[in-house]
Amino acid sequence: MKYFKFVLLFFFIVNIFFGNANELKEGYWKGELKLEENNTLNFVFFINKKQRITIQNAQERILLKEAIPKNDSLFLSFLSFPNYLIFKVKSKKSIEGYFVSIDRKSNRRIALNGQYFGDKEPKYSDKKENKLNGNWQVSFDPETKNKFPAIGKFKQNGNRLTGTFLTETGDFRFLSGSFKNNKLTLSSFDGAHVFLFTATLKNDTLKGDFLSGSHYKTNWIGFKNKKFELENPDSLTYMVKDLFTFNFKTTAGEDYKYPNKDLENKVVIIQILGTWCPNCLDETMFYKELYEEYNNLGLEIIGVAYESPYSFIERVKRINRFTENKKIAYPILVGGHASKKESSKDFNMLNEITSFPTSIFINRHGEVIKIHTGFNGPGTGEIYTDYKNKTKILIESLLNK
């Protein structure tokens, strides 16, 4: 008994002196991800009393899982994606480590450091300036055969800048940054995307670079044009054969064929996605709403996920993690490897799959009535709201026929 009391006393003393060794200062922090020698992605995160970290991208908030001690470091994983942060606590106001992207074969680690800022968010100048407000016609990789169009939607408040880029296969989600001395900086760090946009405004034209992590870099150019439009996302993928059919495995390893008796006289959305894809996440959260609202009226949603792991078991783990974390009630089947080429072979009744996600809308008679490529999520503001409203009107009209 004396020995037991001694052990308890020992651990009590150790906890007093060393238990808070990894405790970080509550409040706002400035984080840095070093993408290149002269290019650093800056972001803001908040640490609460329970030592939980929340990353901020414009109006988006990303809560990480609780920290797990590993040797002399702390390990924090993202809720929506399989990537993680690992760092050492240098002091209560300083950390140093890496962001790790587990599916990337090279450049998997990006150097990370963070410094405590204060109990209030960093302030921006409130000087009235709106040079960038509005829509910009943008071209990425403009001087090459790989060039692709986009629309930059920017909102400027003093030197505070937020917005996103819309492309024909989806948006770049929530971007935030600044515009100072005619220099633009916009970035996003959400556990999958590590996006950094820089540019200089000269003679009403923006010219700059786009970096995705430390593995991809290209240039871009843009100028104001509120009339510029992208190609209709409902026209990019279309049927080239009469019948829409497929056969995939469920996460339990059973065959699932479409069409089937369970879906007779149902309105069906087939969602081709990947759990690694932020645009797919945004679409899934919208489809979760649709399913909850219209399933009892005859709507069914079937997901087919294409994942980075090559083994069936590992793909199932990714899908189960995704559906459990996001509480997705509709089934997601196990597709192949995360490849547009592979998904195009599986869905060879379509001309091609050009984007994750891609959604096929089918009426009660089993007829494909619409195929939507990509997804513009909540970062696009009224475009997202408008698409949600139009999709609900479409679903209601199909259910009533």
Essential attributes:
alpha+beta, nine-stranded antiparallel sheet, 25 strands, 5 helices, Lipocalin, Glutaredoxin, globular, 18% helix
What's the arrangement of secondary structure elements?
Layout: H1 2-18, E1 27-36, E2 39-47, E3 53-57, E4 60-63, E5 68-70, E6 73-77, E7 84-91, E8 94-100, E9 109-118, E10 134-140, E11 148-157, E12 160-167, E13 170-171, E14 175-180, E15 183-189, E16 194-202, E17 205-212, E18 216-224, E19 246-249, E20 255-258, E21 267-273, H2 278-294, E22 299-307, H3 312-326, E23 332-337, H4 340-346, E24 358-362, E25 368-373, H5 382-399
Word description of this protein:
- This protein is an alpha+beta fold.
- It folds into three domains: 93 residues, Quinohemoprotein amine dehydrogenase alpha subunit, domain 2 (Lipocalin); 91 residues, Beta Barrel (Lipocalin), CATH 2.40.128.120; 154 residues, Glutaredoxin.
- It is 18% helix and 42% strand.
- It has a nine-stranded antiparallel beta sheet, with no helix packed on it.
- 32% of the residues are buried.
